[in-house]
């Protein structure tokens, strides 16, 4: 019996919203509102490209050189970003999650991250997807099933689509007053600086144009409920918003430039709420220490505007 390269696919529907969830990587493969794409989709029969829609555990973004120290022990992860020499986007992106519970508008997927070279910790991961009148809601919960504390972080990897055109044509609103600077070649973090007077300042909506972004923002503006947001709008006024809770004090934004594949370059804006910044396994910044039997949860939502 053959299986789609993206794993089993679950269709969710509620009102004008529809979504497809692929079990490989607990991936949001498609999300539409009234037939309009809110994220860059990919075919069920494709190997997921560029981490589109994947759930990133037990770390988002990069561990520089794949090396880190944890509670006195040195660890070396596999280098899954060979061009830059880093360990990228965790260990769960290519695991096939099982279906724990499913209804017309919701599904819970689950997997285990086994102890292994470079990450000798055992985690259970549950990912809840749910559609309602306000769009798609996702929550990731990690539980430490081992007998030692584990480093942990998470985040999603959707590429938002505002409407017609490409990233250059859209305007963005990113409510953040600081950005993590990185080296040009390997994107290694070098420090945090204010966005004032830089190309990274999108605190007021403005057209993205040819601005290149592959950076993590922090110092996030939040509403009375502790919710942060990024909005992207097309020239026609359609748009999409991603929001997230206080568990994620960071958001990676990437204009998805692809010089090697111009046909897919800048066709969506990657917006990735994160519980920790790039290379948190080394810096320790906002890194979650997951004690034995303890759990941590982070949540985000995507809606049409």
Sum this structure up briefly.
The protein has one helix spanning 280-283; strands at 9-14, 17-22, 27-33, 36-37, 55-56, 62-63, 67-70, 73-76, 87-88, 98-102, 106-113, 123-132, 135-144, 150-152, 155-156, 159-160, 171-174, 176-182, 189-194, 206-207, 214-220, 228-233, 239-244, 250-254, 269-274, 288-290, 295-304. The chain is mainly β and 305 residues long. The N and C termini lie far apart (41 Å).
Order of helices and strands: EEEEEEEEEEEEEEEEEEEEEEEEEHEE
Q: In which order are the strands of the major sheet placed? A: 10-11-12-13-27-23-22-17-20
Oligomer category: single chain
In terms of DSSP E residues, the strand content is 35-45%
Helix content: under 10%
Number of helices, where a helix is a run of at least 4 consecutive DSSP H or I residues: 1
Number of DSSP strand runs: 27
Overall form: globular
Structural class: mainly beta
Main sheet specs: 9 strands, antiparallel
| Residue windows where pLDDT falls under 50 for at least 5 positions | none
CA radius of gyration? 18 Å
What distance separates the N and C termini?
41 Å
Mean pLDDT over the full residue set: 97
Features of this protein?
single chain, 305 residues, mainly beta, 9-stranded antiparallel beta sheet, 6-stranded antiparallel beta sheet, 1 helix, 27 strands, 1% helix
